Amino acid sequence: MRFAVTHPLLAHPAHPGLVDGPTVARLARAAEEGGFDGYGFTDHPAPSKRWLDAGGHDALDPFVALGFVAAATTTIRLIPNIVVLPYRNPFVVAKAAATVDVLSSGRFVLATGAGYLRSEFAALGVDPDERNELFDEAIDVIRAVWTDDEVTTTGRHFEARGVAGRPRPAAAPPIWIGGNSAAARRRVAERGDGWCPFPAPAGVARTARTVALDTPERLAAALTDLRARLEDAGRDPATVDVSFSCTVGGTPGDDDFDPDAHREGLAGLEALGVTWVQVPLPGTSPDAAADAIARYAETVIAPARS
């Protein structure tokens, strides 16, 4: 089992200390030193004020922020949570991702999603009804840019002739695909190196326009479906990562966090086939986030690896 955190910009307005460069570096280094395996940022380039005021959150650009983290760390993987592929031309995504990967000596993971926030699509000039087609197109283009010397292809809104994406990563970064639906799992089987759904009770699922995924039974059924799709595609399910969250025992920012119960919850997820766990951090202050990192490292990660 490996552990990742997302930089805790959880509110609007965010705590000002959490968008301070030294604090970003401090938290990323603390996570690395504590044994965490991944650090990430969310992707909201143009959220509406209405969404922010209704419970949304501020965000840093994930590529820029992860480049900053790369310079402050040495081993932790750089995993955005998540990049909304339809928001950008895929050649731009391929270049940004390759740049972070090359400058971090191969530590980048391109975790992706199709997006759901219609007002953000509108602000970026992208038709949300095309997001699934744009997503699939982007994955194919990005992989081609990372592996081919010359890319010629026609997309829904672009025509590329003889594009060369140098410098390329030494090895193509893994591509994880987000989303709770069967369509997301189909994409993983066809194009992905990992699946990164998120816990979603019915209310959250409606807001995010996705499928509810809020019980071990639902997760188990989804993973059974994923394994079947991978096997049908001639792929070994053991080679595909699965990222999820564990809420058993609470979270490390809670006063009543129960590490023993949490470790039992992790064991249950691992038995289902989960390979990465997203650990939530409190967004109330930099010190609260740092304390939660240290607490989880001491009470969960260290015992798991001893």
Describe the protein's architecture and organization.
The protein is α/β, with parallel strands linked by helices and 306 residues long. The chain has 11 helices and 11 strands. Helix content is 43%, strand content 13%. Helix 10 links the parallel strand 10 (241-245) and strand 11. The longest helix is centred in the C-terminal third of the chain and has 20 residues, at 286-305. 40% of the residues are buried.
Outline:
The chain is α/β, with parallel strands linked by helices. 43% of the residues lie in helices and 13% in strands.
Features:
306 residues, alpha/beta, TIM Barrel, nine-stranded parallel beta sheet, two-stranded antiparallel sheet, 11 helices, 13% strand
Low-confidence stretches: none
- How many structural domains in the coordinates? 1
> What kind of sheet is the major sheet?
9 strands, parallel
The total count of strands amounts to: 11
Strands side by side in the biggest sheet: 3-2-1-11-10-9-8-5-4
> Percent range for helical residues?
40-55%
Q: What CATH architecture label applies?
A: Alpha-Beta Barrel
* Top CATH class: Alpha Beta
Output the radius of gyration: 19 Å
Distance between the termini: 13 Å
Shape, principal axes of CA atoms: globular
- Helical region count? 11
Q: Hey, roughly how much beta strand do the residues contain?
A: 5-15%
- CATH third-level topology: TIM Barrel
SSE run: EHEHHEEHEHHEEEHEHHEHEH
